[in-house]
Amino acid sequence: MNIFEVLRRAETGDYIKEDDFNMKLFTENKKLIAKYGIKYDKDNVIVDSDEMADSLFQAALELCDIMGFFCIDTNRIIRFSREELLLAMETAPKEMVLGVGKDARTMRARKVNDGYKMTVCGGCPGTPLPEELFLPIMMSYAAEPLLDIIIPGSLVSIEGMEVKTGGPLEIRATRQELIWTREAFERYGRPGTHIYAAGESSATALGTLAICNDRYMRTSDSHMIPVLSELKTDNIRLARVMTGLEYPAYTTSLMDPIIGGFAGGPEGAAIVGAAAIIFATAAYGVQMHCLHAIHNKYVAVSTREGMWMNSVIGRAFARNAPISILADAWTMCGTGTDELLYETAALALSQELSCLHTDALGATNGVYPNCSGLENRLFAEVVDSAFHQGMTAEQGNGLIRKLVAKYEHTFENPDFGVPFDEVYDIRKIVPLPAWQERYDRIKDELCKMGVEFRF
Amino acid sequence: MSKKLLGKIEKSLYEDSREKSTVEMVQEALAGGETALDIVASLSAGITELGVRFESMELFLPDLMMGGKAMQESMELLTPELEKISGSGSVAKPVKVVIGNLEGDIHDIGRDILATMLRVGGFNVVNIGNNVKADAFIDKAEESGADVIGLSSLLTTSLPFAREVMGLLEVRGLKDKYRVIVGGGAVTREFAESIGALYGSTAINGVDVLKEAFAS
Question: Measuring CA to CA, how many Å separate A190 from each of A209, A237, A326?
């Protein structure tokens, strides 16, 4: 679908008030959950039922037909025919080269048991980082060879002044993030590494426009175009689509179905999340999707509900319409804690065994700068192990049950850990002994549980 | 029979009721001679259970919003009766809260949850929506006679506008007139403390914090 037709429909589609759209979504989604028999299983968060996955995909298509994609600026519904949606899915890329030269990595639209493991994105999505720690933190990711692509954090200040949405510093911050991220790559001899979701501080279209230059975002990088919760867009998002078309970097969507919100529980959020992926493919023409389950109480993706939602969506698309989906991996706890590492391992297993890629770890739900390269290393190592030892969904579920038992109790009162400079030597960019020892100990524990690390 | 009706009023806030709306049942109860205080007790029990079921994810945001609306409409119906009972001509004036999302932020779902929870908690809420400029929060508080200004943001880059609200309150000589509470995905306790505002870690916690602040 070309962007002009999308814009035309955003001006001429059926009129509806936003509140009515929300309530209609809730009512109709309830019916679809019952009709298609979608059922959340808290003890088996990796979904290996083909029937459930296929039902979810059909339910999502039906929800797209019923609801349409709502433009909040015009109060109009952008409608697509079933054929248009399926054609968009069919023509979306099944394989992409991200990055350049020797540092390029191939990202594939995963299928069930296709013989490929995920593309691992490292970094700290959505995490506010202070100026003085930005480069060292990005260096800690660049130093990890198992991280295929990297997403930067978000700069909170420039020259000591806070970055404000839509202000002049939004331009400077989005550019500086990329300059420093690239510098981190260069220092570790990987200048061609793909920057995923460039322009983290771009809350408006300003930041995205500001980085459309080879000095900042290269055409081999990608930028992000969110779908608003639930199944909505607006002019800022559509302006980013236009930007992406004319500055041909890769684009990725972002959808954040809220578990417990207008979609309903995990089952409803899964249907809405899948429908959002379909709409983003058709309306935005993105090549990748970032799937981010939001738990209405704890936010974290490491909740059972969050992992299950991501898993069923991953399998649904792998079987019915393969497309590249990167799942966010937000944790409750932060660097320096055992729980962060347990959450990391559970997320790695659940995503690798659900035909997903990952969009990196957002420690402390992306609130504190308590993040580092080391937990990203563990994530990538667990992914590698699960893939090479041929771990099954059943085995993965068994491990996740044990891991969840080790961190779930912290949800009511999470340990946010400590900032980067308290777990890393920021001159040498290596973990401090206490953090390294904790990582080694938990890796040993994982070995005893049955994870066969190769490194 | 009357106990049965009061029980139905309670359940109507958290169970699908296909017979009559909550307000219709409240009208019926009043007409049948139930006291306003007994009806309020049933509504309170119902709204408490609704909150518990929302927290445990048996019920979801739309259920919460519908229950909150039913509670608010019922209370409007009952207020004249409660005023008669109090004898003084009026019941305690509810605390009024102006809430909105800070400039540049359009993530309204969390704010709407808080607005609903505040209403069911007995607060009077003026919800002024998304992308609200710092000065507009204060203008609206002045215009509506509010006691509290509530600032919400999911975006880190919108948080500086919370500091701007605090600065403008000072400049306009209104610093001591309002309590300010801040919450949302990007907000930390440390940030709230740094600007001298109250902090709500979740919608439910936000209600508790304000109740405590106005307990006296």
Answer: 26, 31, 22
Distance (Å) from the alpha carbon of B91 to chain A's nearest alpha carbon: 32
Are A264 and A372 spatial neighbours (Cβ–Cβ below 8 Å)?
no
Q: How far apart are CA A154 and CA B154, in angstroms?
A: 13
pTM here is 0.92
CA–CA separation, A259 vs A117, rounded Å?
28
B173 touches chain A (CB under 8 A): no
CATH topology of domain B2-86: 1.10.1240
The pLDDT tens digits of the residues spanning A20-78 come to 999 999 999 999 999 999 999 999 999 999 999 999 999 999 999 999 999 999 999 99
Structural domains of chain A ordered from first start: 95-449 (3.20.20.460)
Whether the CB of B122 is below 8 Å from some CB of chain A: the reply is no
Q: How far apart, in whole angstroms, are the C-alpha atoms of residue B84 and residue B90?
A: 8
CATH fold of the domain at B96-213? Rossmann fold (3.40.50)
Asked whether the beta carbons of A424 and A430 are under 8 A apart, the reply is yes
With beta carbons less than 8 A apart as the criterion, state whether A79 and A58 touch: no
**In 3-state terms, what secondary structure has residue A300?**
coil
Give the C-alpha separation, A14 to A354, whole Å.
37
8 Å CB contact of A234 and B106: yes
Q: Quick one: tokens of A49?
A: 């039922």
Q: Which of B52, B105, B114, B156 to substitute to test the interface with A, most A CBs within 10 Å?
A: B156
Where helices occur in A92-167 by DSSP H, the ranges are 131-142
Chain B residues touching A21 at Cβ < 8 A = none
Specify the amino acid at residue A340.
L
Q: How far is CA A360 from CA A304, A330, A380, in A?
A: 18, 8, 10
Dump pLDDT digits (tens) for B2-20.
Answer: 678 999 999 999 987 667 8
Neighbours of A425 (CB within 10 A): 13
Q: What is the DSSP string of A181-212?
A: HHHHHHHTT-TTPPBTTB-TT-SSHHHHHHT-
Rounded Cα distance, A191 and A150, in Å: 12
Parse chain B into domains and list their residue ranges: 2-86, 96-213
3-class SS at A435?
Answer: helix
